[in-house]
Structure formats: C-alpha cells, structure tokens
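Annotated sample (chain length 322).
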Amino acid sequence: MKKTFGFALALSLMAGMLASAPAHAAYPERPIKLVVSFPPGSGTDTNARYAATRLQERIGVPVIVENKPGANSFIAAEAVVNAKPDGYTLLLASNSPVTTNVVMFKDLPYDPVKQLTPLAKLAYGPMGVAVKADSPFKTIGDLIAHSKQNPNSLNYGAGSASYRIATELFLAQAGIKAEHIPYKGAAPALTDLAGGHVDFVFADLGAVVPFIESGAMRVLAVTGDQRVSAVPDVPTLQEAGLKDYYMINFTAAFAPAGTPKEIVDLLSDHFVEIYRDPATQEFLDRTHWLAFPGGQEELRKFQLSEIERWGAAARAANIPQQ
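Output written by the structure step:
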C-alpha cells in the first residue's frame, strides 16, 4: 500500500512539474510572423523576406512575412506591441515605426522604446533622390534652381515619416519648398513618380533601382556620405553642395516587451549570425544595402541615438509634430 501511495505521489509531483513548466520551453513549435509596416516591394519588405527565409532554415518552423502598411506604420507597430509576448509575433522595422514616429507625432499610440524589446540591428543603406526618366532635371542642381525660379511649383512623394523628414531636411538646406504628398510606402510613391503624378521621391535604393533598370526613372543624388556602386556616377548630396546632409535608412528586429529572455536571446543570436554571414552581404549588395549586425544592447543604443538624430533633422527642417 505504501509503495502504491509513493508511486502515485511521484506521478502527481511529475505531473505538477510538467504543468508548471514554462509554455515557451519547446519554442519554437509553430510558425513565427515577421510584421512589416510597408507593402511588398519596399527595402524593408525585401530585407524581411530574406531574414524570414534564413531564420526559418535555422529555427525549424515556418517564418512568415506579414505586411501591414498604412497609418504611418501605426498598424504594424500596434499589432506587435499588443501581441502576446511569446516570440511568435515580431517586428521587422525600418526607421519609421521605431525612431522617426517618436519625432513626428505628439500622441503616438504606442511607445517603441517601452513596448518593444530590441533583438538585433540588421542592415542600413542610403536613399536616392529619384525623378522620372523624362524629367527636365538632369542634376540635383537643376531641381534646386527650378524651384528657386518657380517657388512652390514642385511636389514630392513620401512613403513614410522617415522619407518626409529626409526630404524636408533637403528642402531646408537647399532653401526651397515643395508640397508633400503622403503614401503608404516607397513602392506606391515610386509608382506614382513613374506615372508622372509627383516630381521627385526620396526612397531606398533597393526600391528605386528596378525602376532605373527598366528605364522609368533616374537618380539625381544619394543621401549617404559616399557614392553607391549601383549608381557610381551619381553624387552624394554632400558632393552636390549640401555639405552637412547625411540620412540613411535601417532595418532591425524587435519583439513585444515582456518576451521571455531565453527567447529574446535565441532570436537575437540567430539574427546577428544571419547578418554576419558573408552570403547575407552578397544578398545585400544585390539589393543595395549594407549589413551592420548588432545585438540587443547595440540596437537599443542605436535606436535612442537615431531618435535624437532624426529629431534634430526635423527641427532643422521646421517640421512640427502632428
């Protein structure tokens, strides 16, 4: 009788231990979503699809990209910050949802610092100043001169808060003005540029180059501090006379705040290792980005410094918070 009781007690204790084991012990056991705040065709989306494929290879479950464009990236960001913090819903972010929205909006409906846990820095790249192929502007100087001679005659498309700040900083430093036309991402802004509905667009080069290759548009300048191999004859805005101009886009991975540390550490390590892989830089070369892998602490420091830098750019361009 005592042996039977002891055996039953042991089974009961084991059942209790199993019941109290953390739910994420078997992580991952079902598909993971990478949420992107822009439509397919954007540089962020391209990065997300590459990261999803490589993460899926390493982690053993499907990794699905879910595009949630619109509302200044609010929809995508809120979908992640309000998701269960179990490692199955992640944000593959550009500048906009995690840095520039802090600068642009007084009443942001989420806090990208408090409500998101950093996983890893991934890639960065300059933007290009694109015009339609038959545009009368052959150089950035042509565009500036035309605007000065014909005030308020130009408009520009911006697919995010980041693109708007980058464009408005250019306008402020060049001493010209243009009307802002908002879009849900770089791809639709560029499509309208190709159709002649806007005069110029700042967008990541990965999104612009296919339009260049098809003969639909050309790039007048790039926004980094060095020329880009994809368009080697195109000067930087610094070379074109705006000596202090420097703006880049980046991509990074985040999880909802409260995600268990062991899951955060696992995902962070995977993302960093993927973006340290030489094969990843080969992919990024084709899409006109550069790898800059870094872990959780590096991403948090970078995020905070970028909020400061984009804030300074918005103030310099006299962009009021909305």
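Annotation: The longest helix spans residues 296-316.
Annotation: Residues 28 and 60 are 8 Å apart (CA to CA).
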